[in-house]
Design goal:
By secondary structure, this protein is an alpha+beta fold. It has 4 domains: 53 residues, no CATH class; 316 residues, no CATH class; 76 residues, Regulator of K+ conductance, C-terminal domain (Alpha-Beta Plaits), CATH 3.30.70; 78 residues, Regulator of K+ conductance, C-terminal domain (Alpha-Beta Plaits). The chain is built from 22 helices and 14 strands. Helix 3 runs parallel beside helix 17.
Length: 563
């Protein structure tokens, strides 16, 4: 009865796969979380035994939207990291070359078909997009339909088997095994790097989380500041604090750099916590519980960095380049890159396309937006003209291909839409008035598009999934583990001894080359700060593009070597 219902109304199977899959994927065991995509695939594989199938057109549309949105959101950072950050980028190349070599060795030894080989790559590298590019490449092999269906089923089955073991391995390797091999205390190393980059001295985790980096305090001015100009005080502390307003004789007023203090003035000062703590004794006596007079209210504004001349500039250098008056009262409270927050420390280097959270009064943050780029204005509108043209162009690019060394390769819709998304996302970052695709809308396209695609291919796998597991047994999980450990060890050796990378950022880069969000989350938890995210964002941006493009390559090579 159930099978008949699902076969007659496959949309029921689709949404059951999504609902139950994401529910299963939400559970965590320590730092390891299966995730909604893998959970959806497992449920779809089970329901696929009933014969329920999703129309191929829906599957193709869902994947095209997912892969375009993936490229669109990653485009600015991808191009920013090509050339710059080459030491971290080299680790992504190590990942690509080593996993390709390993896959081909396993293909020859175990006589794997192209589908199983591509599924191992997708699962071990925890890169779900490879499933789409690989299954599409298999569909163009020019072999009987039954063989195509069998290989495509093997892609998702091999992925589901190797994904969990690859995920556990990369989490344990980056957060536990690698620090033991290097004989370091990861938390101490991260604290050292944090201080070297200009972060505050060591604090207990609870203190660091509870205390905001940018604060506002009210002081009664003491004799040390009598007759001293506001600008002089601010320069003493390197621009890390700003006098926003002063109350004199009961009358509050907003002040500039030329205003001169008088003893017993009541001053509202905004700035970095450490700067205010250091300067409190010279300023006067803090008045606890006093509000900010209601004249100058602190605001926050997200700004997209677009200036070409600020590419690779540190926050410390950014402040040094600005005149005292232009940069006055503008604070960078956070830096967001690829949806990850990296530490906004003086030594943090910026990329075009970074989202800077500016803090200060409204006039100050508006001035900062004009100086750095453009405000990220919340919008719910999607430019469907831009989106439609981008996907169409991607489909056209997907027809490009050729024969190389006797191996037939084609980008396919997946590879074409990925490249198109990269280009259209990059254009959007340079010309923000065109091509609106709000972050929330892009996330929906990525989440729903990928989950729908995964559910469709999982349902189509059917009984073939059981056959593959029976045929190879424990071999697939073991190969998945090796495909994480060997590239990870190579990157650890090259990154530490040849490239001389700091250990926290190196381990973050290894998590990024595996496109593993759980691994970087575990690292941040172990280190106690966000320094590993600096390396993660660079390799993640590169691997998130390069790995999906390897889907057709693996299919072509495995077809040639495996026969």
């Amino acid at each position: 009865m159930l099978g008949e219902i699902l076969r007659s109304q496959p949309e029921i199977a689709l949404f059951v796969s999504l609902a139950v899959g994401y529910f299963i994927g939400s559970f965590k065991l320590g730092p390891v979380q299966l995730g909604g995509v893998c959970g959806t695939l497992i449920v779809a594989l089970i329901l696929g035994q009933t014969g329920a199938r999703i129309a191929p057109d829906l599957k193709n549309i869902a994947f095209a939207l997912f892969i375009f949105a993936l490229g669109f959101t990653g485009g600015p950072q991808f191009f920013a990291n090509v050339g710059r950050g080459w030491r971290y980028g080299l680790l992504s190349i190590v990942e690509i070359v080593s996993v390709l070599a390993l896959i081909m060795i396993v293909v020859v030894i175990m006589h794997l078909d192209a589908g199983t080989a591509a599924g191992l790559l997708a699962g071990a590298a925890t890169e779900s997009a490879v499933i789409g590019t690989a299954t599409e490449a298999i569909g163009k092999l020019g072999i009987p339909d039954a063989d195509i269906s069998h290989m495509q089923a093997n892609v998702v089955t091999a992925y589901s088997v190797s994904y969990l073991f690859g995920l556990i391995t990369i989490v344990l390797f980056t957060s536990q095994l690698a620090p033991l091999m290097l004989r370091v205390n990861l938390r101490d190393e991260s604290e050292r790097l944090w201080r070297e980059m200009g972060g505050e001295s060591a604090l207990e985790d609870g203190q660091r989380q509870a205390m905001a980096s940018l604060v506002t305090r009210v002081f009664k001015v003491g004799p040390a500041l009598n007759g001293v100009a506001v600008g002089v005080l601010e320069q003493r502390h390197g621009g890390a604090l700003t006098v926003e307003q002063v109350e004199r004789n009961g009358v509050p007023s907003i002040v500039g750099a030329n205003f001169v203090f008088a003893q017993n003035d009541i001053a509202m000062i905004m700035g970095r916590r450490d700067a205010l703590l250091a300067g409190a004794a010279d300023i006067g006596v803090e008045i606890a519980g006093r509000d900010s007079f209601g004249l100058a209210k602190a605001e926050r504004l997200d700004v997209v960095l677009t200036r070409k001349d600020l590419e690779g500039v540190s926050l410390r250098e950014l402040r040094g380049r600005s005149t005292a008056e232009r940069g006055r009262g503008i604070y960078v409270e956070a830096v967001t890159r690829l949806e990850a927050t990296i530490p906004a420390l003086p030594a943090t280097r910026l990329n075009r396309g970074d989202i800077l959270t500016l803090a200060g009064t409204k006039g100050d943050v508006d001035r900062g937006a004009r100086l750095l780029g453009y405000p990220l204005v919340p919008t719910q509108k999607t430019d469907f003209v831009y989106l439609g043209i981008g996907v169409l162009l991607g489909m056209a690019i997907g027809h490009l291909g050729g024969t190389f060394g006797g191996i037939s390769l084609s980008l396919g819709t997946g590879g074409g839409c990925l490249l198109s998304g990269l280009f259209f996302g990059w254009i959007r970052s340079r010309h923000p008035l065109v091509g609106s695709l709000p972050p929330a809308a892009a996330q929906i396209l990525k989440d729903f598009g990928l989950a729908t695609f995964i559910a469709a291919v999982g349902l189509s796998a059917g009984p073939d999934a059981i056959k593959l597991v029976r045929e190879y047994g424990i071999s697939l999980p073991l190969v998945g583990i090796l495909m994480v450990l060997i590239p990870g060890l190579l990157s650890l050796l090259i990154g530490r001894h040849l490239l001389k990378l700091d250990i926290p950022t190196l381990l973050g880069a290894i998590a990024g080359q595996q496109c593993s969000t759980p691994a970087i989350s575990s690292l941040v938890s172990v280190t106690g700060n966000s320094t590993p995210v600096i390396g993660y964002t660079i390799t993640y941006a590169l691997s998130n593009v390069l790995l999906p493009l390897m889907g057709p390559v693996v299919v072509g090579l495995a077809r040639q070597l495996g026969g």
